C-alpha cells in the first residue's frame, strides 16, 4: 500500500464509525485517512446522509454528533463523478459502491456486506472487512 492509496467505505461501515468512536470501523476509517484518500460519489454520500437521519439511530447518535461526523468526513473525502456503471453485484443497491471504487480509482473497498465481500477481488480492487483492512495496513484492531 502506498501513501496515495484510495479507499471506498460502504455506508454501514461509515454508520458504525459514526456511532461507535472506539470501534474497528472507526479505526479503519482513521487509518484510511492516514494512508491515503477516501473517495465517494454523490450517490454514496446521499445514502449515508439518509441513513444517518433515520429515527432509529437517534438513540445512538445526537444531532450534534451526526453533523460533526458529516462535517469531519466532508473534509477528508474526495467526491468523484461516476464514470463506470456496473451491474455485477447480486444486490443491485451495492453496485454504487463498486461504481465509486472504479470511478475513483480506489484500490480498496471496506465493507461488512457479504454481497460485496464475495466479489473479492473485484477488477483489481481488494474488498475487505474493516478488521481485514486494519490487518492489511499493519494495525491491530482494538475495537
Question: What features would you describe in this structure?
Answer:
- The mean pLDDT is 93.
- The chain is built from seven helices and five strands; from the N terminus they run E-H-H-E-H-H-E-H-E-H-E-H.
- It has 143 residues and is of the alpha/beta class.
- The chain has one domain (5-136): Rossmann fold (3-Layer(aba) Sandwich), CATH 3.40.50.
Nutshell version of this structure?
The protein has one domain: Rossmann fold (3-Layer(aba) Sandwich), CATH 3.40.50. It contains seven helices and five strands, in the order E-H-H-E-H-H-E-H-E-H-E-H. It has helices spanning 11-19, 24-35, 42-52, 63-76, 95-103, 114-117, 130-136, and strands at residues 5-9, 36-40, 77-79, 108-110, 126-128.
CATH topology: Rossmann fold
Number of domains: 1
Given the C-alpha coordinates, what overall shape results? Answer: globular
User: What is the CATH superfamily classification?
Assistant: 5'-nuclease
Q: Briefly, what CATH class? A: Alpha Beta
Fraction of residues in helices? 40-55%
Provide the low-confidence segments as ranges: none
Decide which structural class fits the backbone: alpha/beta
Q: Mean pLDDT, rounded to whole units?
A: 93
Please report the total strand number as a whole number.
5
**Spatial strand sequence of the major β-sheet:** 3-2-1-4-5
> In CATH terms, what is the architecture?
3-Layer(aba) Sandwich
What fraction of residues sit in β-strands? 5-15%
Distance between the termini: 23 Å
Spell the H/E element sequence: EHHEHHEHEHEH
